[in-house]
Design a protein that fits this description.
Helices cover about 75% and strands about 5% of the residues. The protein is mainly alpha-helical. It has 2 domains: about 70 residues, Winged helix-like DNA-binding domain superfamily/Winged helix DNA-binding domain (Arc Repressor Mutant, subunit A), CATH 1.10.10.10; about 50 residues, Iron dependent repressor, metal binding and dimerisation domain (Diphtheria Toxin Repressor, domain 2). Strands 1-3-2 form a 3-stranded antiparallel β-sheet. Helix 1 crosses helix 4, helix 4 packs across helix 5 and helix 4 packs across helix 6.
Length: about 130
């Protein structure tokens, strides 16, 4: 039983790490494929230290490239992930708008839903929008 709990929590941590990676690369992409730590800190409402720690992890994953006192830029892998995340966000956002949700709520809710919706459900959202 202890092992299954550990696996459940590990899976949750991996999912949160994936969400964070998607959010960061999407934010960098939306800022012109490069950004400074201060821009990301402002965008996410977090400290510079938080951004620096996250940037370090994303660089280790090969999603971004950076150097001291330089802008953070997306790698090809990071850009690919950003485009996928952005597409998912738009589908969910437009689906919520179609349901009559106001723009502010749809934008806020789509930020969370986009990470958790399955491909099957996302395809159903797209069919509904057509």
């Amino acid at each position: 039983m202890h092992k299954s709990k550990k696996n459940k929590y590990e899976e949750t941590r991996r999912a949160h790490a994936r969400e964070l990676a998607e959010d960061y690369v999407e934010a960098i992409w939306s800022l012109g494929k490069s950004a400074r730590v201060t821009e990301l800190a402002r965008h996410f409402g977090v400290s510079h230290v938080t951004v620096i720690k996250t940037v370090s992890r994303l660089e280790a994953l090969g999603l971004i490239s950076t150097a001291p006192y330089k802008e953070i830029t997306l790698t090809k892998s990071g850009e690919k992930l950003a485009l996928i995340a952005n597409k998912r966000h738009k589908i969910v956002y437009n689906f919520l708008l179609k349901l009559g949700i106001d723009e502010e709520t749809a934008n806020r809710d789509s930020e969370g839903i986009e990470h958790h919706v399955s491909e099957k459900t996302l395809k159903a959202f797209e069919r509904y929008l057509e």
